TrEMBL record:
InterPro entries attached to this UniProt entry: HAD-like_sf, HAD-SF_hydro_IIB, HAD_sf, PGPase
EC nos: 3.1.3.18
SUPFAM superfamilies: HAD-like
Reactions accelerated catalytically: 2-phosphoglycolate + H2O = glycolate + phosphate
Biological function: Catalyzes the dephosphorylation of 2-phosphoglycolate.
HAMAP family: GPH_hydrolase_arch
GO MF annotations in UniProt: metal ion binding; phosphoglycolate phosphatase activity
Top EC class for this record: hydrolase
Keyword annotations from UniProtKB, A to Z: Carbohydrate metabolism, Hydrolase, Magnesium, Metal-binding
Membership in a protein family: Belongs to the archaeal SPP-like hydrolase family.
Name recorded for this polypeptide: Phosphoglycolate phosphatase
Pfam families listed in its UniProt record: Hydrolase_3
Active site: D8
Length: 225
């Protein structure tokens, strides 16, 4: 039997052009054990991806701030503290950097994401002041509660689907995946991963993005009893 999976989305299930490769959808649908999508994105994004892949909605969103598996929805973190940090950031001239309608944060409930064009030094300073984690995923900066992470959320989600976190194989590409790599039984970093993710992974793949992920998962499938 194949093991359950915890898969990051951006940089891991996507192409270098940030699109979802169609092979991702068939992979999700054909895996014979639970698949958890674990992302820094707001909750509706992974839910929609599960929906359109035709798989149960098992997701970790907002870097662990929101998690859902089999009808059980849980929250972690301190959104009021995050709001206060954003207020301080903006009062000092900071701008989250999303033009027009901010669909990145519109449905976000526990943390905040800023464009990587935003003032990184100011965001880092505010994160430190408010005792929040600063995460650079390569796609956005995030201010997240310090005790919230994909790895912490995987504990609850795993239990909900009848497994332990160490039963999972995790695949990811950036520092927001390191906590998940630490608790999963086996962790793969795709070739485009940052140094933190590569350092936390058990294996670094030769190929990047969704190609690397597909390589990892065929390896896992081949050796499954
Ligand atoms: O939201 C981000 O910044 C990155 O999302 P990811 O965790 O799916 O890579
Ligand atoms: Mg990623």
């Amino acid at each position: 039997m194949v093991p359950p999976l915890a898969l990051d989305i951006d940089g891991t299930l996507t192409t270098p052009e940030h699109t979802i490769d169609p092979r991702t959808l068939s992979l999700l649908a054909s895996w014979e054990a639970p698949v958890v999508l674990a992302t820094g994105k707001a909750f509706p994004y992974p839910v929609a991806l599960c929906h359109f892949a035709g798989v149960p909605e098992r997701v970790i969103a907002e870097n662990g701030g929101v998690a859902m598996a089999d009808g059980d929805l849980t929250y972690a973190g301190d959104p009021e503290r995050v709001d206060a940090a954003v207020e301080a950031f903006e009062a000092r001239g900071g701008d989250l950097g999303w033009d027009g309608v901010d669909t990145v944060n519109r449905w976000r409930e526990t943390e905040v994401a800023a464009s990587r064009t935003a003032d990184e030094a100011l965001l880092r300073a505010v994160a430190e002041e408010f005792d929040l984690a600063f995460l650079d995923t390569g796609y956005a900066y995030h201010l997240t509660s310090a005790d919230t992470s994909k790895g912490a959320a995987l504990g609850g989600v795993a239990e909900r689907v009848g497994y332990a976190p160490e039963d999972f194989v995790a695949v990811g590409d950036s520092e927001n995946d390191a906590s998940m790599f630490d608790v999963a039984g086996e962790a793969y970093a795709v070739a485009n991963a940052d140094e933190t993710a590569k350092g936390a992974a058990d294996h670094v793949l030769e190929r990047g993005y969704v190609d690397g992920t597909l390589d990892a998962l065929s390896r896992v499938r081949e050796r499954a009893p």
